[in-house]
Structures are given as C-alpha cells and as structure tokens.
Design goal:
Strand order of the largest sheet: 1-4-3-2
Number of strands: 7
Structural class: alpha/beta
Number of helices: 2
Radius of gyration: 15 Å
Strand content: 25-35%
Order of helices and strands: EHEEEEHEE
Distance between the termini: 25 Å
Shape: globular
Largest sheet: 4 strands, mixed
Length: 123
C-alpha cells in the first residue's frame, strides 16, 4: 500500500517564464499558472511540474562528476535525434558529452539535465 501519491515535481529556476515556456513546449502540457516567481504546468493524470525562482540559482552542470545533479527526468520519445532537435529549438542544449546511444542527455534553459529515451525501450 502506498503512503503517498506523486502529484508534482518542482524544479528550481533562474527564469520562471522562460522555463515554463520551454517545458510546456517539450511536454505539451497546459500552463496552469505563470508569474515571475513561480509557474506550474499540468499534465495527464493530474501530474504537475512546478518551477520556482531561486535568486542566485546555479545549474548542476553536465557531466556531473560530483553527484550534485541530484535527479533528472527521463522522457520517452519515438525518434531521439528529431526530439533532440526540437528541444534545442525550444531553448534546450545538447551537450557534446553523451554517455550512450539509446538516450540523449539535454539541459533545460536553467541547466537541469534530463534524458530523452527511446519509447520502445519502455515496453
């Protein structure tokens, strides 16, 4: 039996409005709230993504040898290269250092690493 149900993941941000637009474009989720200090997207099943302004925010960086990244999102896509191009077009960054062939590490505009993975690998 579950103790809790995940409803929202919140990311620190150096520019909330920029990051709201980026993640809305990547995920195709609705913008539920947007202001300079905080934004929220809503997705399927009631899941939400929050973005909160942190003054002096410093991106965790990639690659991250010290483990200060803490977590990342894995997003399933049909075509890795096409999806990576679209994400870059929305303001993301595709680092030169890539750890494998079945996924792509990208950085959102605030520098959070996340992965695009082949949807077929998830079954």
């Amino acid at each position: 039996m579950a103790i809790a149900t995940l409803k929202m993941i919140t990311l620190d941000s150096s520019d909330v409005r920029r990051d709201v637009a980026f993640w809305a474009g990547v995920l195709g989720w609705d913008v539920a709230h947007e202001q300079d200090e905080y934004g929220m997207l809503t997705g399927p099943g009631g899941l939400a993504l929050g973005l909160g302004l942190v003054e002096g925010y410093r991106a965790p960086g990639w690659p991250n040898e010290h483990g200060s990244k803490q977590f990342h999102l894995d997003l399933a896509v049909d075509d890795l290269d096409a999806a990576a191009r679209e994400v870059v077009g929305l303001g993301g960054t595709l680092p030169d250092e890539q750890p494998g062939e079945t996924w792509r590490v990208l950085l959102d505009p605030s520098g959070h690493p996340f992965c695009l993975t082949r949807a077929a690998n998830w079954g």
